[in-house]
Specification:
Rossmann fold, 26% strand, six-stranded mixed sheet, four-stranded antiparallel sheet
């Protein structure tokens, strides 16, 4: 599904923040991405989502070279990837329901075809009583759960999550991890970037460990 081959990444003329990164993400796999602050986790996620291009090396996403994708091809590839950003990126003028439904609405689906799925997903992440609320009045944890629901609503082939449990209490963190595990068992590949060792210890999954821009893999 994803292949990195000797990938390097730098911003401008600075030093490389990622160095000689090589790994594969197989269909249906589950992995944690971890490492100290500043190790390059967010940069690696941005390369996976193709919001950055590598400075060198090869990245293949669903069999296509990410560096040569055209502007016409890129949206179709990105629709196969769900992403939970650390800063949520909810739209303040839309309700929670509208934020979660937005990826489906943009694709042209009729509301009657997805309304029940959106409501059920918001209920699962504990936001069913906030369905008509707007993001500015929500807590950080509520925004985090809404961002997760939005990333999952389109049943992506690959889910990328940047510190998805960072604003949640331990019970909600475990609940979200179970959701990610269930999604993975249904066939979605999952990459969770996290500092939370307790969270990682709850599930036996491959660990991609970044340190000073270099990657080590622990099966």
């Amino acid at each position: 599904m994803i292949r990195f081959d000797s990938v390097g990444m730098r911003y401008g003329s600075g030093e490389e923040v990622l160095k000689d990164i090589s790994f594969d993400i197989d269909p249906g796999s589950f992995q944690f991405l971890t490492g100290p602050s500043g190790a390059g986790k967010t940069s690696l996620l941005r390369l996976l989502f193709m919001s950055l291009k590598p400075s060198r090396g090869l990245i293949k996403v669903f069999g296509k070279d990410s560096a040569t994708l055209t502007n016409e091809e890129l949206p179709g590839i990105r629709r196969r990837i769900g992403i939970v950003f650390q800063d949520f990126r909810l739209l303040d003028h839309l309700t929670l329901y509208e934020n979660v439904a937005l990826p489906l609405r943009v694709r042209g689906y009729e509301e009657r075809s997805y309304r029940r799925d959106v409501i059920d997903l918001l209920k699962w992440v504990g936001l069913n009583e906030r369905i008509d609320a707007f993001p500015p009045i929500l807590s950080g944890g509520e925004k985090q759960r809404a961002a997760v629901a939005r990333a999952l609503i389109d049943q992506p082939e690959l889910l990328l999550a940047d510190e998805p449990t960072g604003n949640l209490d331990p019970n909600l963190a475990r609940r979200l991890l179970r959701l990610f595990i269930e999604l993975n068992r249904s066939g979605t590949s999952v990459v969770i970037a996290t500092h939370d060792l307790n969270l990682m210890d709850q599930y036996d999954a491959r660990r991609l460990v970044l340190n000073d821009g270099r990657l080590q893999i622990y099966a």
